[in-house]
TrEMBL record:
Organism lineage: Bacteria, Pseudomonadati, Planctomycetota, Planctomycetia, Pirellulales
GO annotation, biological process: NAD+ metabolic process; NADP+ biosynthetic process
InterPro entries: ATP-NAD_kinase_N, ATP-NAD_kinase_PpnK-typ_C, Cyt_trans-like, NAD/diacylglycerol_kinase_sf, NADK, Rossmann-like_a/b/a_fold
Keywords: Kinase, NAD, NADP, Transferase
Catalytic activity: NAD(+) + ATP = ADP + NADP(+) + H(+)
Protein name in the entry: Putative inorganic polyphosphate/ATP-NAD kinase 1
Length: 458
């Protein structure tokens, strides 16, 4: 007997308490529940007004505490809206049930339901697919309107994303409609207001709960942590990272999906991603005012030499480098346009603005400020074309780097320093769903740190 899977597709713009209650009811009934936030659609202007990264974060915050619920952000990442008949094909071997509200089946007896009107291959789906009809005790659907294969699921919590959006625009109290974590995220960024959403903001950490992350081998960091009343990560409002940039990268990899800020205190070398220890020591901590910046991650789709694919996220960088004594021959494509038919080099690196101060800098690229609206392509020991070093790339662009001679000139792939093995191709672009919140004191000056690297003292 096939395992039953409930497929719940929706805008979730934003997710409300009624969505959460539906998910909880589904996990009590089905073996597996998958939530799929729909990608942008031309007819849904209000949906396109909120960045996909913010929509993904809201869905994460709403459903992550419900055991048995999985989130599929592929449509948000790919900026598409996959029809339900195609979504079924993502889950071969499962008995898929499409979750719809009762208003979707009204008029089904006459072939005039919303499913008939808007879904692809609607008539065939109506007759052959499985449907879970969500209703309240007052809104039970007419039996004549039900599709041949259905189940009714009563969830007595009403609401809609449209009602929530309208209430937010009008400044009304929505605490009975939205989960507190979701509402806090909305309010902190000014979402669903008439003004543009903010990707940086000033917040207070005073009175908030922080989780300390550090390397116990760093004695100074460990001593500082002893005097900090930290809490478990599950209860934390932010992460305080004690160490250098490497420690910060470890913390980000481990905790970014918590969707909380990272406040770094530098116990390492330059500490581009952290606050200076002296500044923290001279101020009230946790601080009354910190500037939180939303910094993007890179999405890397790698085709490996063994024919497999791997999709990863990188906060700093992703790169290819030669595996043998032979130089690498790499084709570089930017936005479907071949920019380098054959780059003869030791390797190619892509990095975020925040990552430009790391390996990219040692390869000769000029570092960028972390909140620069760009990312970077960098060449390592480029022989052809001669003297080419690097190029800034638009946040809306994608890059494909492809090995032209994998037999004679194999290349290895790395995601933030983690080896992938021999790679045939990497497709890289800024993620549309994953970002990191870095918190800095107002006096933090990354430009000064970059200047110290570019103009070293004698």
């Amino acid at each position: 007997m096939a395992v039953e899977l409930a497929l719940c597709v929706g805008n979730f713009n934003p997710p409300g308490i009624h969505h959460i209650e539906i998910a909880r009811a589904l996990v009590r009934t089905f073996n597996r529940v998958v939530i799929v936030p729909a990608g942008p659609r031309a007819e849904k202007r209000e949906q396109n007004a909120i960045a996909s990264s913010f929509r993904a974060a809201l869905v994460d915050l709403a459903f992550r505490g419900i055991e048995g619920v999985e989130l599929d952000f592929s449509d948000l990442e790919n900026q598409t809206s996959t029809p339900n008949d195609q979504l079924e094909k993502r889950y071969p071997g499962y008995d898929v049930w499409h979750v719809v509200p009762e208003e979707f089946v009204k008029g089904g007896n006459e072939g005039k339901s919303l499913i008939h009107k808007y879904w692809c291959d609607a008539q065939n789906l109506w007759q052959t697919a499985n449907f879970v009809i969500i209703h309240t005790c007052q809104t039970k659907p007419d039996p004549k309107d039900l599709p041949p294969h259905h189940r009714l699921l009563e969830v007595n919590t009403e609401g809609s994303s449209h009602q929530i959006r309208s209430a937010l625009v009008q400044g009304q109290n929505v605490t009975d409609m939205i989960d507190p974590a979701v509402l806090n995220f909305i309010e902190s960024r000014g979402l669903y207001r008439l003004s543009s959403p903010a990707h940086s903001r000033t917040v207070s950490l005073h009175g908030k709960r922080g989780h300390a992350f550090f390397d116990p081998r760093n004695k100074a960091a460990a001593k500082w942590a002893d005097g900090f009343a930290g809490v478990a990560i599950e209860e934390a409002d932010y992460v305080v990272v004690l160490g250098g940039d490497g420690t910060m990268l470890q913390a980000i990899e481990k905790f970014w999906e918590r969707r909380i800020p990272f406040f770094g205190v530098n116990f390492g070398h330059l500490g581009f991603l952290l606050n200076d220890r002296e500044d923290v020591s001279n101020s009230l901590f946790p601080s009354e005012d910190v500037i939180v910046r939303d910094l993007p991650m890179l999405r890397v789709d790698s085709k490996l030499a063994d024919g497999s694919h791997e999709v990863d996220l990188a906060f700093n960088d992703a790169w290819l480098e030669r595996s043998t004594g032979q130089t690498a021959w790499i084709e570089v494509v930017v936005d479907d346009q071949v920019r380098f038919p054959k780059l003869v080099c030791d390797g190619v690196l892509t990095c975020t603005a925040a990552g430009s101060t790391a390996y990219a800098s040692s390869m000769g690229a000029t570092p960028m400020l972390a909140d620069t609206e760009a990312w970077m392509l960098v060449g390592s020991n480029v022989m052809t074309p001669r003297n080419w070093k690097s190029a800034p790339i638009s946040m809306n662009s994608s890059i494909t780097v492809r090995n032209l001679d994998p037999i004679k000139r194999p290349v290895r792939g790395f995601i933030g320093g983690t080896p992938l093995g021999d790679v045939l191709e990497m497709k890289i672009r800024p993620s549309r769903t994953a970002f990191v919140e870095l918190a800095f004191l107002p006096e933090h000056d990354m430009s000064r740190k970059i200047a110290d690297v570019l103009f070293p003292s004698h």
